[in-house]
Amino acid sequence: MLRLFGNAHYDFIGARRYAYALTAAILLPGILFLLLKGLNYSIEFTGGTLLQVQSKKTVNVAELRSGLDREGIPGAEIQNFGSENEYVIRARIAKPGTDANDTQATAGAVRIALDRVLGRGNYTVVRTEAVGPKVGGELRQKAFLAIFLSFFAVLAYLAYRFEWRFGLAAVIATAHDILATIAFIGIMRLEVSLTVVAAVLSMVGYSLNDTIIIFDRVRENLHKHKHERFAQILNRSINETLPRSVLTHGTTMASLIALTLFGGEVIRPFALVMLFGVFTGTFSSIYIASPVLMAIEQRWPGPAARGHLAPKKAPPASPSRKPQTVS
Amino acid sequence: MFATIRSRLILIALLVVASVYFLFPRNVTLRERGANGVMRDTLVTRVPLKRGLDLQGGMHLALELDQSKQVSADPKKDLDLALTVMRKRIDEFGVEEPLVQKVGDSRIVVELAGISDPARAKAIVQRSAFLEFKITNKTGALEKALPAMDRTLRSLGIKGKAEPEKPSAVQQLLGGDTARSTAKDSARPAPAPKAKAAKGAKDTAAKDTAAQDTTPLPGGVLSGLIQPSGPGGVPGEYGVPETAFPRVDSLLNLPAVARHLPRGMVLRWSSAPASVGVQPVRFLYALDDKSIVTGANLVDAAAQLDPLTNGPIVTFELDRAGGRRFGDETGKHVGDFMAILLDGRVQGRPPVIQSRIGRNGQITLGGKSLQEAQDLALTLKAGALPIPLKIVEERQVGASLGSDSIRKGITAGLVGTALVILIMLVFYRLSGALAVVALGLYILFTLGALSMVDATLTLPGLAGIVLSIGIAVDANVLIFERIREELMHGKTVRLAIDEGFKHAMNAIIDSNVSAVLTALFLFQFGTGPVKGFAVTLIMGIIASMITAIFVTRTFFMIWLDRRPAMSTLSI
Prior knowledge:
The structure holds two protein chains of two kinds. Chain A has helices spanning 16-37, 43-46, 61-70, 104-118, 133-161, 164-187, 194-224, 230-262, 268-299, and strands spanning 40-41, 48-55, 77-81, 83-91, 123-131, 191-192. By secondary structure, chain A is of the alpha+beta class. The longest helix of chain A is centred in the C-terminal third of the chain and has 33 residues, at 230-262. Chain B has three domains: 5-25 and 398-562, Multidrug efflux transporter AcrB transmembrane fold (Up-down Bundle), CATH 1.20.1640; 58-126 and 392-396, 2-Layer Sandwich (Alpha-Beta Plaits); 132-366, no CATH class. Chain B has 17 helices and 20 strands. In chain B, β16 and β17 (345-346) form a beta hairpin. In chain B, α1 runs antiparallel to α17 (528-562).
């Protein structure tokens, strides 16, 4: 049978310090970047006007920009979208002198500018989004609340199914994933839209899934191998679940790559964020969730782990062996 | 309960039949506006999976009470009233499965799928449709008040330049069309002044651009711009050059100026400029404050073509009480002129009251299309909005973009599925083939369940289905890996399969429950498209648990049943 990483014996826990260094090397610049440059929110969150335009002839961007300036919409973002004659115009600031929560005046002004520059009938507006800043602000609040609350719900569920130590470790790993993903979104300059928030939340679900699979095995092994040290139990569990992880990530990535390549412009950011999420989720399940669980158990030993934490009784963790890729 | 292969197969067959039933194309009755403008029911056959606005094209609007001009005494009540009015209007508008609902305490959401003329839909949604009939003032009260107004303006330091750059709220209300025409007018150099009014306009325009501190006009700002219609005209009618209209309007709205108006009198503008001589002129009307009757008394309205002029008209019928009052008042005012106001704008030039008018009347719409007349009749019949509404959020997707998205989503789905099938076959061979069959059932169940709960399929939802195809095999992978482990520990095939399913169960349930939990929060917070994503995710997780745990297990049972002596498993 074809089995990747079957019977692997990597010393994942022993390498945790390198993993911490790697995490820091990714997260710290990411957070710094976020603090300096911030996130690129879509107009759903900031409020503003977006028009996606298909033009019959090639659009002169500079001309279009000055046309928008003349209509009182300076600093509009004009972005090529997919094909050559398809553009997205984003005006984040409302036309001066109008009520920004009344989204109609600004959208109307953009259309006038388009009429002037491209000529009426030479273009079609295939998508319009005009969101008042009030609506956008509410949405932003709701998005943060959703991420925050889902955190606690999962913590509660895991505390009920396992014990709070496992739940806490899983949530810390998830927090890492969210931070890393947000940093990724920031550095890639992806637009934070509702779909991207949906991707972040599904990434949370996916990463938790991965962590739970390992923890489930840890729970089982704690009962099965009474005399092993906790680090050994963790290593064993990660190695045993490795073939499953590799294969599931493989099929998930296959779907995501298909989405990235064929799903179209609107879905691409979603697929990219999820793709990154698969990586960070895998990494955090192994290198964040498990070592953190160990650290928690060492500080506040739980009943299940107590016997496994006795210092220096059992032989030290077996050194890592060469992986057997195919068997 | 489902211990035997037979009972398991029956259950699977039932699930398949149910899914196919929910996905089977069926006849749907649609209420549409036909070519002749009359509503009619049509039958359409289609797959009953609802597509979201982002996939079929359409418009999503969020509306709030616009209290900038008129403050609501009871916003909650007014919003409920507006909701009822909006329902009636949208029903009459005739789109397939429209959605009108209240969201939170202050917002109405209107969703119209597959509409071809979004501007028209927006006009219908936003129009207050408040109809009033008022008698024009014949005492020349405005002329008398003008000098006092000008003196006030001068003392306020407003000469040629008040706050002309800031467009008035009225201009905003008028929307794009007016903005365009005024922009055009100001871009073009003003024509040579012929009338006195036009001269005034030019003077102020010159002051706007150049001098800041020149002497005021001899007659004052307003007297220079507001001219009575002349002896033969309608009493209480004044002409203002169209270019000066926004400015005059904002000046008249200054509280210090409005104070000079006599009690019981209001000023209202005409709905559209009229061309008098060279320059377009906007009429200003001095009217009795008290309306003789309003649209609240209206019971019916219909659009017609005037047999004489062939122009569109809207005929209306008042209720009994309204008709009586209308008759009494018009009887008292024979020989006077009556202005018909819609949303505070005078429609056409006020006609003279020839005789007592009863319950039936008509509104003449100069220069408008029959469709506009139909839309007006529609909004009048549905009733007036208590407070105007403003659009705080608009999303609109063209139908072509929507079908493009569907095509791309299906392509991505097919490619993704093909890759997943390939991976499963390569790694798990015959067992993988079983998982692939289960995956096919998974897709069928998910779509069937979505159709059953009447969920809306959106673009992110489509992405969710593609993604979940990759994730759905996870449960199978978990089970298969576990079976392999058990086999490696030297267990028999039968035992390994049993143990594999048993031990993988915990992990499958725990991971799926937490995934459902996050999806529930997503559903709670998201708007349309994201809600669609959350629903497909939840349905997908449930379906994948059924297929992985139940269906695949059944397949293995059949397999073992056929080859009881099997000692190696193709996995």
